[in-house]
Automatic annotation (TrEMBL):
Name under which the protein is recorded: Aspartate aminotransferase family protein
Any one Pfam family match given in the protein's UniProt record, by short name: Aminotran_3
InterPro entries: Aminotrans_3, Aminotrans_3_PPA_site, PyrdxlP-dep_Trfase, PyrdxlP-dep_Trfase_major, PyrdxlP-dep_Trfase_small
PANTHER family xrefs: ADENOSYLMETHIONINE-8-AMINO-7-OXONONANOATE AMINOTRANSFERASE (PTHR42684), BETA-ALANINE--PYRUVATE AMINOTRANSFERASE (PTHR42684:SF1)
Ranges in a coiled coil: none
Species, as recorded: Limoniibacter endophyticus
Amino acid sequence: MDQVNKANMPVLDHFWMPFTANRQFKAAPRLLAQAEGMYYTDADGNPVLDGTSGLWCCNAGHGRKAITQAVERQLATLDFAPTFQMGHPIAFEFASKLAANAPGGTDAKLDRIFFTGSGSESVDTALKIAIAYQRSIGQGTRTRIIGREKGYHGVGFGGISVGGLVNNRRIFPQIPADHMRHTLDIERNAFSKGLPRAGVELADDLERLVQLHGAETIAAVIVEPMSGSAGVILPPVGYLEKLRAIADKHGILLIFDEVITGFGRLGTPFAADYFGVTPDLITTAKGITNGTIPMGAVFASREIYDGLMTGPEGAIELFHGYTYSGHPVACAAGIATLEIYEKEGLLTRAADLAEYWQEALHSLNGLRHVADIRNLGLVGAIELTPREGSPGARAYEVFADCFKNGLLIRVTGDIIALSPPLIIEKDQIDTIVSVLEDALKRAS
Ligand code: PMP
């Protein structure tokens, strides 16, 4: 890999950075300049082990030549074409490939695919489909959506309405939504390996909200089967099954937001497969193109699709779509990505590594400041006790220390989140753990 030239440091003033303390960052920037395999290279030319798959998206690692070639070929063949009242072959081809791996048995398969440009767009799309479907089957009063405390569903107005991270929604108007309680319950589940055993009764909160608002007002409930952005909150054993049963009882659609868990993070195609619970709609993005070209997709059940295909012949069934829905270049990247996942057996690889990953992470149990360790598939979280009077400061210190020592982690508040590419080797897992251990020991 070429040496990165520091003289290339760009002017930083103009890019208004997302979800970033801009002034703090620009005073001491961290720039990632190149990437290959499991590693980034920073602007000084130092390697940085990717402990987060970028932002939960580069599941097959970086610099995948097959994706580059597919994108180059597609750009040269058909760079863009609309999908409104028009089509192009590769969008249909990619949708069919995605459909082949969709969860659900033959009757309940979620194999109708609506393309979007991101996770946030997938969420807004799924919410609209849910409300439109209810209306089309004569349930037009069902317009409310139930989300969950601490849920993250992107930053569109739909997503923040159903999302439960307070900072993301506090100052903005929202669509009618309400939130189930979902606490971490560290007290009962601290350091549990894999799924927490206590807390299935939290699902009963959905029943409470149904009674409060009336089932006839509720279109859907949306949850991340495993929430990532709030700091890796795992569903207690039996929780998702219970949500499914309550939703079924009241004619409420169940939406799984799998923007993080889709495409192998838990060692299965989707979290729905991992848990054996089939929702009615699944939102995806990120790993769909290995993070290379922005794209998302909503997987809908045939029942929902068919339910919306009932208007007069020739009429548009769903007034919704994006210029970039099914963008040909993103589809090419997506097809190449699926081929890599399949040819290299990356999902099985993730499943096989999960136990090694679990034991490696839990070896940090007992270190000062460590309040909890959680893991599932190739996801991990280390929760720290907050520093008196400055929540988040301790984890940020560990984050900066790790980066200086060649490891990229992610922090949310005082929770460190880990989600390495599925190509990770055992010795690289050991490196993640030892760099973290040193940083934790140094943390004040
Ligand atoms: N839903 C979930 C569960 C996510 O984790 C994210 C992004 N981290 C989103 C939606 C939003 O995706 P995007 O940033 O691509 O809009």
